[in-house]
């Protein structure tokens, strides 16, 4: 069986939020566990002249269970990134509020007309509404991406486990068939050997017994 080099998806990829601030790179340990599972399969004993490989079901099951345990920490990392993005958004909102307050104070100092003040208030309300909408949209988008990532990871792990179990079943069946063929051949050879032995004994029994010469008698 040709050995394939496992892909290395563990390289950190920077993620950029809608606010323009790059998020910390995400490095999921699950990729390392998947690569280890692939390595365990390739390092298993290969039956010569066949496409079958004998693997340790216990080790494979333990590795798959380890992958299942790795998925929740990966989601926690993603949630931590979401929390950091939310803090950045909150700081941006506070800065926007400070800008709005400064603008309102400056407008009150320069202009004393009610129409201009009302216009400034409307603009401030519009800015607040727009910022709130952008924050909610970013938060929902991040949650959707996290849920999609979690679902995709669990689905890939389940498919890999089913594939591994199917391969184990095929390998076991191949080993059983091979053992059956060897035992059948051995049984046939032993039967032939027993028949030869029986024939030899029968020939020995069928030969006449030669009389021995008594003392003093001529042969």
From TrEMBL:
Region ranges (Disordered): 1-25
Bias class Basic and acidic residues marks the residues at: 1-11
- Highest taxon, organism lineage: Bacteria
Keywords attached to this Swiss-Prot or TrEMBL record, sorted alphabetically, are: Coiled coil
Asked if Coiled coil is a keyword of the record, the answer is yes
Name the coiled-coil region(s): 117-163
Q: What is this protein called?
A: ATP synthase F0 subunit B
Provenance organism: Microcystis aeruginosa BLCC-F108
Q: What is the lineage of its organism?
A: Bacteria, Bacillati, Cyanobacteriota, Cyanophyceae, Oscillatoriophycideae
């Amino acid at each position: 069986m040709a050995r394939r080099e496992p892909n290395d998806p563990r390289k950190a990829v920077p993620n950029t939020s809608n606010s323009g601030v790059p998020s910390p790179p995400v490095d999921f340990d699950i990729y390392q566990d998947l690569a280890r599972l692939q390595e365990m399969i390739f390092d298993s004993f290969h039956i010569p002249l066949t496409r079958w490989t004998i693997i340790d079901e216990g080790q494979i099951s333990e590795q798959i269970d380890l992958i299942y345990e790795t998925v929740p920490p990966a989601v926690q990392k993603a949630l931590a990134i979401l929390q950091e993005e939310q803090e950045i958004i909150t700081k941006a909102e506070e800065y926007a509020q400070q800008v709005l307050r400064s603008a309102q104070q400056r407008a009150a100092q320069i202009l004393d007309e009610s129409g201009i003040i009302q216009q400034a208030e409307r603009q401030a309300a519009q800015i607040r509404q727009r910022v709130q909408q952008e924050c909610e949209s970013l938060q929902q988008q991040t949650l959707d991406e996290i849920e999609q990532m979690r679902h995709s990871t669990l689905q890939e792990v389940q498919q890999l486990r089913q594939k591994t179990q199917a391969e184990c079943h095929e390998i076991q069946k191949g080993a059983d068939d091979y053992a059956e063929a060897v035992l059948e051949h051995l049984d046939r050879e032993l039967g032939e050997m027993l028949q030869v032995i029986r024939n030899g004994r029968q020939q020995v029994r069928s030969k006449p017994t030669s009389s021995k010469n008594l003392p003093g008698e001529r042969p």
